[in-house]
Amino acid sequence: MNKIFIFGLGFSAMTLARRLTSGGWRVAGSVRTREKVEALRAEGVEAVVFEGAAPGPEVATALDGATHVLQSIPPGEAGDPVLIHHRADLAARSGTIRWLGYLSTLGVYGDHGGAWIDETAATAPVSPRNARRVVAEQDWLRFGEEAGIPVMLFRIAGIYGPGRNALVNLKAGKARRLVKPGQVFNRIHVADIAGVLEASMARPRAGGVYNLSDDEPGPPQDVIAFAADLMGVAPPPEIAFDDAELTPMARSFYSANRRARNDRIKQELGVELQYPTYRDGLNALFEAGDGRT
Questions:
Q1: pTM higher than 0.90 for the full model?
Q2: What architecture does CATH give domain 3-160+188-215+261-267?
Q3: What is the pLDDT of residues 221-234, one digit of tens each?
């Protein structure tokens, strides 16, 4: 039986976990608190605690029998927490682990002035957070070569999905239409992230790097306007980016401008996106109830 261990059972990882569980996989993984452990075990997930600052006492046992591993925990200033605390545990299971995926971000590419890029583009992060991602990517690829475990990198665009999207933000009164001329972002529905990961598991390629993004990057204010139209409400007023009050992290998202190509996931992995544009995704989410009163 296939078994996956997931470091960091967050939004994207849990979407994959539920799909694999329904497909007959054994699913184990880590969370930060004991309360989440109990909730996930009720769903059939073999959850254990790993806070990232020290080895998880139950992680090694939970890794036994894992054929696949997914790492979705971001690196800290000291480096990747999984490699810091559980490198030896993973290396000791190189005989059984057939696939190891690392979830990264398109942010590693930095700013390209709105130009189209693919996986061959050089990494040039513009924030310390994304610079740490580049180092973590390199560390994981090096670990895979040393341990004999196929490691793949997945650089992910802005994630949205059920309960986490422009419709929900509008309904909560939290959506803003910030306008920075020429600025575009790629996005990807969480279901398509899971689909790409499953496709990679079926066709592992050591050292493979993949952009996980939709077909149509666009201005963020257009997404809010489309969501408002679906809901039948007036969109919030446009706010010039230079006039907006933003946290340093929020402002950093606008410091890089690029359009990410996703040809590799289609051509190499045979992926057909379920939601190729934000309009497809938001339409489906609205039909499912997000944003409705």
A1: yes
A2: 3-Layer(aba) Sandwich (3.40)
A3: 999 999 999 999 99
